[in-house]
């Protein structure tokens, strides 16, 4: 049996961390969307029982149990009691450790694909329960559509489609350690974006209200050690984006544009300052996940 699936990158339109639980886990309130930029994953069954082999075209990825796709496959096979070998080949298009959830999305794509391949009949909620054991963005990525994410990442409430918009992503050439950023949440006075206003903007398909209420509590923490993120954000707006923000714990920033032609203008201008630049639309409008 063989399947090829896409694993889309996510963007955080709104990210609030209202409090930290006594065990150190962060309580999230995030509005996320998935975009056309995606990894391609081929999954094949093999007769080497209980052997999960990961191959990828990226030298940045672990190809053993540390790979999130491996962990997802392992948990799924245990849960449904299937004995098979798997070969999982990842074509990596999403920049790694960029705040775009590439690893979580690969893991979620593997869960969805195995569920279909073996006709296991698990609901998205059940796949999300497996996914939360891998990391906190996997439940969202099982749905991979615009959604409100809360709790420790396990509560996913799908929202309606975003109005037409374009994103211009720019990934500066710096490394950000997510654990290092997240550890600082408990001890830093972070700002809290207006998530309810953002939700109202989405509910009313109101582009301007959405753009004026994007916000990310982690931005101040990451920017404190990497001020170039702030510069890149300002440049995106200077070149014509209606708003700009960092995704996740960074370092990728994105600008939002209402039209494709404006997005291309911003793309061309920002390309002079940043090597890794992408244009994408929200996932659900154009490209079904399978
Ligand atoms: C911040 C977000 C927002 O979408 O995006 P990314 O930047 O990853 O894309 C994610 O929630 C992120 O998800 P993820 O990377 O899965 O985070 P988690 O699994 O919760 O934690 C990542 C790592 O940070 C550590 N961690 C987490 C919380 C905390 N208070 N202190 C920590 O040291 C965890 O132990 C783990 O090793
Ligand atoms: N399939 C995968 N794709 C990307 N990264 C992975 C994968 N499996 C494990 N990782 C590890 O997960 C970490 C986070 O990567 P990624 O999910 O791309 O970024 P982020 O958490 O910033 O959204 C990296 O250190 C990477 O080595």
From TrEMBL:
It catalyses: 4-CDP-2-C-methyl-D-erythritol + ATP = 4-CDP-2-C-methyl-D-erythritol 2-phosphate + ADP + H(+). This is 4-diphosphocytidyl-2-C-methyl-D-erythritol kinase. It comes from Lentilactobacillus otakiensis DSM 19908 = JCM 15040. The lineage of its organism: Bacteria, Bacillati, Bacillota, Bacilli, Lactobacillales. It is an enzyme of class 2 (transferase). InterPro entries: GHMP_kinase_C_dom, GHMP_kinase_C_sf, GHMP_kinase_N_dom, IspE, Ribosomal_Su5_D2-typ_SF, Ribsml_uS5_D2-typ_fold_subgr. Keywords: ATP-binding, Isoprene biosynthesis, Kinase, Nucleotide-binding, Transferase. Residues 67-144 form the GHMP kinase N-terminal domain. The keyword Transferase applies. Its EC number is 2.7.1.148. Catalyzes the phosphorylation of the position 2 hydroxy group of 4-diphosphocytidyl-2C-methyl-D-erythritol. GO terms for biological process: isopentenyl diphosphate biosynthetic process, methylerythritol 4-phosphate pathway; terpenoid biosynthetic process. The active site is at 10, 137. HAMAP family: IspE (MF_00061). ATP binds at residues 95-105. Pathway: Isoprenoid biosynthesis; isopentenyl diphosphate biosynthesis via DXP pathway; isopentenyl diphosphate from 1-deoxy-D-xylulose 5-phosphate: step 3/6. GO terms for molecular function: 4-(cytidine 5'-diphospho)-2-C-methyl-D-erythritol kinase activity; ATP binding. Belongs to the GHMP kinase family. IspE subfamily. Residues 199-273 form the GHMP kinase C-terminal domain. The keyword ATP-binding applies. Pfam families: GHMP_kinases_C, GHMP_kinases_N.
């Amino acid at each position: 049996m063989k399947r090829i699936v896409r694993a889309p990158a996510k963007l955080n339109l709104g990210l609030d961390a209202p409090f930290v639980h006594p065990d150190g886990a962060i309580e999230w309130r995030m509005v996320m969307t998935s975009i056309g930029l995606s990894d391609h994953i081929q999954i094949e069954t093999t007769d080497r029982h209980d052997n999960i082999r990961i191959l990828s075209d990226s030298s940045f990825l672990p190809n053993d149990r540390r790979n999130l796709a491996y962990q997802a496959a392992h948990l799924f096979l245990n849960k449904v009691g299937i004995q098979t070998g798997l070969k999982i080949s990842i074509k990596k298009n999403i920049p790694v450790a960029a705040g775009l959830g590439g690893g979580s999305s690969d893991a979620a794509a593997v869960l969805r694909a195995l569920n279909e391949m073996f006709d296991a009949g698990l609901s998205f909620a059940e796949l999300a329960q497996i996914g939360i054991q891998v990391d906190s963005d996997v439940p969202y990525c099982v749905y991979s559509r615009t959604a409100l994410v809360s709790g420790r990442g396990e509560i996913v409430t799908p929202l309606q489609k975003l109005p037409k918009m374009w994103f211009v992503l720019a990934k500066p050439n710096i490394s950000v350690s997510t654990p290092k950023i997240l550890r600082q949440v408990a001890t830093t006075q972070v700002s809290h974006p207006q998530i309810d206003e953002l939700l109202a903007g989405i509910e009313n398909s109101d582009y301007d209200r959405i753009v004026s209420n994007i916000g990310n509590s982690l931005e101040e923490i990451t920017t404190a050690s990497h001020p170039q993120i702030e510069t890149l954000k300002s440049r995106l707006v200077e070149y014509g984006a209606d708003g700009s923000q960092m995704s996740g714990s960074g370092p990728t920033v994105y600008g939002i544009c209402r039209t494709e032609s404006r997005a291309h203008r911003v793309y061309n201008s920002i390309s002079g300052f940043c090597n890794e630049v992408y244009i994408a639309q929200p996932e659900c409008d154009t490209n079904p996940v399978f």
